[in-house]
Amino acid sequence: MKTICRFFLVLVMGLSLTSCTDSDDELDEPMLYFKFKFDPTQARLNNLGVIAGVPAGHAGQSPIFNSISAHYIEMTQEGNTPLGLGEILYHAPETTAGGAIAIDFSQSKIVAEDEIFFAIPLRLINPGTYRWMRVSLSYQNYQISVREAGVDYAGTLASFVGYNTYINTFNIGSNPFVVNGNRAQGYWAFALNDVPFSTSGQAPVGATTVPNPLWNLSPIPDGSCVVTGNFLNPLVVDGNEKQDVVVTLSLSTNKSFEWIDGNGNGKYEPSLGENVVDMGLRGLIPSY
After folding, report:
1. Which terminus of the chain is less hemmed in, N or C, by CB atoms within 10 Å?
2. C-alpha atoms less than 13 angstroms from C-alpha of 124 in its C-beta half-sphere
3. First-to-last CA distance in the chain?
């Protein structure tokens, strides 16, 4: 499967379109824009795109998002279109500085909710009726609650959910995290907001949920974070657009931060050995 993943990444690099557009172009021609929305009330899905609760012995929080990044965006007209053979719109920079090919975190575009993540002229998109979106998420930054000695503290978690990410040094508040290497899907770092405490760790291999309702028609590689969702109203591109189109990528944050709840109190208590097991977003609904 690792060989398939590497082949897919090379294919995408060859087919991808640049995310940079001239400012004059953006003023003179209709554009397709993408932005993110975070919804804690949206359905909580499993890897197969089926509604799922929190497993027994686990607990979850719906985190308060600060920002997010993605490394790949694709639209498809049909559900059985293989991954990488749809309309590839965006592919973020990658590097081999850490050995194996990986997302280059230093060049990742990180945005807040409702901020434009990516734009492309509509004239560059093949005409058609697009029913499905595929978005490979790579980074999340959000607020969670942590309990220590009976007291609840607010903290910030940086979650790397991409297939592989090369990280130099990054900060959470005044807390630096020096990595200088690749980190597989599920690497995380955490710091309390008002108390001098920070830590980092790695979720189990394969534990990150990546909803794909098309798993039986067009599967995704193991270890990737290509979340799949369908337009309730298909997006029609006919090549004669006169106005901009803004696509909102609504992501389910419904108890998307999940841990092993050793004492069953629903509070995240890492000092008691309660480990993070899942940081995957729980569904995608695109709309425009």
Report:
1. N
2. 21
3. 35
Contact 37, 229 (CB under 8 A): no
Alpha-carbon distance 176 to 192, whole Å? 13
Alpha carbon distance 144, 240 (integer Å): 46
Cα separation, 63 vs 60, in Å, equals 9
> 23-37: per-residue pLDDT in tens?
444 458 999 999 999
Q: Beta strands of 110-197 (E only): which ranges?
A: 116-121, 128-148, 151-160, 164-172, 175-184, 187-192
- The token pair at 77 is 């007209």
**What is this structure's pTM?**
0.88
pLDDT beyond 80 at 51: yes
The C-alpha atoms of residue 54 and residue 27 are separated, in whole angstroms, by 47
Q: What are phi and psi of 157, to 5 degrees?
A: -115, 130
Helix extents (H) in 20-163:
23-28
Find out whether 146 and 192 touch, Cβ atoms under 8 Å: yes
Q: Is 221 helix (H, G, I), strand (E, B) or coil?
A: coil
Neighbours of 211 (CB within 10 A): 25
| Angstrom distance (rounded) from CA 230 to CA 218 | 13
